[in-house]
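Sequence, please.
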């Protein structure tokens, strides 16, 4: 489970499915029935035990272009990201809580300032062009020119990243299918773990936690 950092293990010896917390190394029982271990059950009585993990489904805006505003002739990339917001009603403008995914893995949780325009798209956006209708930047944005501290920095966004806006998009989902050996059933667990709400202090700093 790349989001919750858990490893599911199919134990065919007794038969159970265990789950290991990769961060702490602790192991717990996910599925199983007490009293079956050591009963010398025949293969027909035990049956198969197995796991199958489906592809993650992560709704959200896909990063199509990234650019840094040109200050004093220096062009850096990755502070602002551009995307297509034409499939949502109304305007995306404003500060929203988001979850940033890269290659199917949860990368960052925090606040993003969205703008319903594509100013400063830059000269290297031919691949994006009219498809880019909005942009975003980590909040608070800050300003290098006037040395104002902010959360936004270059290289925070990459092409293909998925930006899930909490309250606008559904939660990420990834079914895990678990075959139990003692009663020949297959159970399903959604391991696309949602994260806890973002906490913003009076100074504007942002912290986050992942649900384990």
């Amino acid at each position: 489970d790349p989001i919750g950092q858990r490893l599911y293990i199919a134990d065919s010896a007794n038969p159970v499915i265990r789950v290991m917390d990769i961060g702490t190394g602790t192991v717990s029982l996910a599925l199983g029935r007490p009293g079956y271990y050591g009963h010398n059950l025949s293969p027909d009585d035990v049956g198969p035990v197995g796991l199958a993990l489906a592809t993650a489904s992560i709704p959200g805006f896909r990063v199509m272009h990234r650019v840094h505003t040109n200050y004093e002739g220096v062009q850096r990339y990755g502070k602002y990201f551009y995307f297509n917001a034409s499939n949502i009603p109304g305007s995306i403008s404003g500060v929203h809580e988001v979850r940033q995914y890269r290659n199917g893995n949860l990368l960052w949780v925090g606040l993003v300032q969205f703008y319903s325009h594509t100013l400063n798209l830059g000269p290297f956006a031919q691949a994006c062009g009219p498809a880019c209708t909005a942009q975003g930047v980590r909040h608070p944005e800050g300003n290098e020119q006037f040395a104002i501290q902010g959360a936004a920095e270059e290289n925070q966004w990459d092409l293909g990243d998925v930006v899930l806006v909490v309250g606008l998009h559904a939660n990420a989902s990834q079914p895990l299918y678990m075959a139990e050996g003692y009663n020949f059933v297959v159970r399903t667990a959604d391991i696309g773990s949602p994260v806890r709400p973002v906490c913003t202090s009076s100074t504007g700093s942002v912290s986050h936690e992942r649900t384990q």
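The two ends are 10 Å apart (CA to CA).
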